UniProtKB/TrEMBL annotation:
Keywords: Membrane
Name assigned to this protein: Pejvakin
Gene Ontology biological-process entries: detection of mechanical stimulus involved in sensory perception of sound; pexophagy; programmed cell death in response to reactive oxygen species; regulation of peroxisome organization; stereocilium maintenance
Gene coding for it: DFNB59
Keyword Membrane: yes
Length: 352
């Protein structure tokens, strides 16, 4: 009966599907802000998830004894009074009958009355909590972590907000015939047939809550999944390996892009030099023909193998040559390789 009333409350209040009804009155005190719950998918036939309470809070599964400093704010949400007529032939009606054991002989419906009065909303300061968890780590030796990690279907969640009653509340159920006036009675000696049932529960009882899933990394760091798009769980070894390979791929791709950019700029520079060389008369460019200039030699005659030209060998194609100059040196090497035409004259023109 309590579960039916909390489900009805969540359905009417809404909150975009984030609110979860408390399934049992005996566990209502375990759904407080910063408490931990386990979220499991029932099976592929049931799209809804099952939430199971735990006796632990977020602080219990973290390394260190430092308290969580995130505060909890509270405010009045609404005044809730509900009366509904439920068919015995529906799933909700069957659930109520099985839950409270009411006598439904000669009845086709159940009248349910929930009087919660003024309810308050208590929520964690999300921004403060997000700043604090950046320096905290998960304790993998905790029993709850070990058990949840071994199950691929279990997701740890943190209760971020809870909705509570502010006064003593009552729930009452009456079995009758649809269309007649339904009257509500508390159980007493004048109700021998058991057609009326009622329960009274104390103030400050949690009737609904909402959670953020936890995504826990292999190194103990964790994230709060603050949106419905992000999903919680444990980082798996294969997932971490794939993520590492993906990052390495991006690094190599960026490095190759930069290298190709440098090569492209070098090629453009060489193209400008060569076009400038060929656009001028020979008398202005052939520096090697002038007196006092460096001499073009065949390096093979000096037991120096063929190699890339210091100018055009830096382009997309490693152009090689056997010619060079002994009067020039680069990086401690006592000669430079240069094509006979036009690299030899372009090099010395630039050096001059």
């Amino acid at each position: 009966m309590f579960a039916a009333a909390t489900k009805s409350f969540v359905k009417q209040v809404g909150d975009g599907g984030r609110l979860v009804p408390v399934p049992s009155l005996s566990e209502a005190d375990k759904y407080q802000p910063l408490s931990l719950v386990v979220k499991k998918k029932r099976c592929f036939l049931f799209p809804r998830y099952k939430f199971t309470s735990t006796p632990f809070t977020l602080k219990d599964i973290l390394l260190g004894d430092r308290e969580i400093s995130a505060g909890i704010s509270s405010y009045q949400l609404l005044n809730y009074e509900d009366e509904s007529d439920v068919s015995l032939y529906g799933r909700r009606g069957n659930h109520i009958v099985n839950d409270v054991g009411i006598n439904v002989a000669g009845s086709d419906s159940i009248a349910v009355k929930a009087s919660f009065g003024v309810v308050t909303k208590h929520e964690v300061e999300v921004s403060t909590l997000l700043k604090e968890i950046t320096t905290r780590k998960i304790n993998f030796d905790h029993s709850l972590i070990r058990q949840s990690r071994s199950s691929r279907k279990a997701v740890l969640c943190v209760v971020m907000e809870s909705i509570r009653t502010t006064r003593q509340c009552s729930l009452s159920v009456h079995a009758g015939i649809r269309g007649e006036a339904m009257r509500f009675h508390f159980m007493d000696e004048q109700n021998p047939k058991g057609r009326d049932k009622a329960i009274v529960f104390p103030a400050h009882t949690t009737i609904a809550f909402s959670v953020f899933e936890l995504f826990i990394y292999l190194d103990g760091a964790f994230d709060l999944c603050v949106t419905s798009v992000s999903k919680g769980g444990f980082e798996r070894e294969e997932t971490a390996t794939f993520a590492l390979l993906y990052r390495l791929r991006n690094i190599l791709f960026e490095r190759n892009r930069r290298v190709m950019d440098v090569i492209s700029r070098s090629q453009l520079y060489l193209d400008d030099l060569f076009s400038d060389y060929y656009d001028k008369p020979l008398s202005m460019t052939d520096i090697s023909l002038k007196e006092g200039t460096h001499i073009r030699v065949n390096l093979l005659n000096h037991n120096i193998p063929k190699g890339p030209c210091i100018l055009c060998g830096m382009g997309n194609f490693k152009r090689e040559t056997v010619y060079g100059c002994f009067q020039c040196s680069v990086d401690g090497q006592k000669y430079v390789r240069l094509h006979a035409v036009p690299c030899f004259d372009v090099w010395h023109k630039r050096m001059k």
